[in-house]
Amino acid sequence: MSAEIRALLLDAVGTLLRLREPPAAVYLRIAARYGIARAPAEVARALDASRIGPPPLDGVALADVPALEREGWRGIVRAALGDAAADGPCFDALFSHYAGAEPWQVVPGVRDALAAERARGVRLAVVSNMDARLPGVLAGLGLADAFDALVLPSTCGHAKPDPRMFQAALRSLGVGGGSALYIGDREPDCVAAARAAGLRAWRLDPGGRAGDPDVLRGWAELAPRLAAFAPATRSG
């Protein structure tokens, strides 16, 4: 029997939560409130081409990370909607919109799966490159209390695929890499990075091949799959 899984490290967007509608539609709708119009195809192309991720973090103080993240999003709004949107109240409205629960939904099966693992004494952490709005989003969705730790660029000063981000999560949970499992939806900068950091890792992929040991096809599979490992014990 394999060693017990004492902790789950989980990606956020695409794994635990997802957007309710395409971002281009939201951008266009909010921009229209401020008299800004763009062709839908143009906005969609700009968003598809944008690099959405954390800013460079080396040498940056943790207190400065949220502001840098916000400015990174300003560049994306500029590319999609132009200067008037990026430098005015349209940007503030867009940024605030995605800070709340309304545009997000919990991936089916997540709540039950997390509750079952917590009941077994498994420690849970979010390990995500999402910006500092994530805690508020999770709270709005009723998921904040499901986790023992939230490990983000704004809380640890690192971002995936940097192995130091996974190490920070393991320290937060008080477990070693050999007893932790990472689950995420992207292979190169997510699942493969976790493996490179010394963790077991599965890719969440509803279209994955049945029986693939490295793929979780849905959250309903989690408990049966973890049954192959020695059972964790509830902490006191």
Description:
The chain is of the alpha/beta class and 236 residues long. The protein has 2 domains: 136 residues, HAD superfamily/HAD-like (Rossmann fold, 3-Layer(aba) Sandwich), CATH 3.40.50.1000; 77 residues. A 6-stranded parallel beta sheet has the order 5-4-1-6-7-8, sandwiched between helices. A two-stranded antiparallel sheet has the order 2-3. α10 links the parallel β6 and β7. α1 crosses α2 and α2 packs antiparallel against α3. The C terminus is likely disordered.
Order of helices and strands: EEHHHHHEHEHEHHEHEEH
Strand order of the largest sheet: 5-4-1-6-7-8
The number of distinct structural domains comes to 2
Tell me, what is the CATH class of the largest domain?
Alpha Beta
Q: What is the annotated CATH architecture of the largest domain?
A: 3-Layer(aba) Sandwich
The best one-word shape is globular
Under CATH, the topology of the largest domain can be stated as Rossmann fold
CATH superfamily of the largest domain: HAD superfamily/HAD-like
Structural class: alpha/beta
Low-confidence stretches: 232-236
The CA-CA distance between the termini, in Å, is 25 Å
- Over all CA atoms, what is the radius of gyration? 19 Å
Mean pLDDT: 93
Number of helices: 11
Helix content: 40-55%
Largest sheet: 6 strands, parallel
Q: How large a portion of the residues is in β-strands, by DSSP E?
A: 5-15%
What is the β-strand count?
Answer: 8
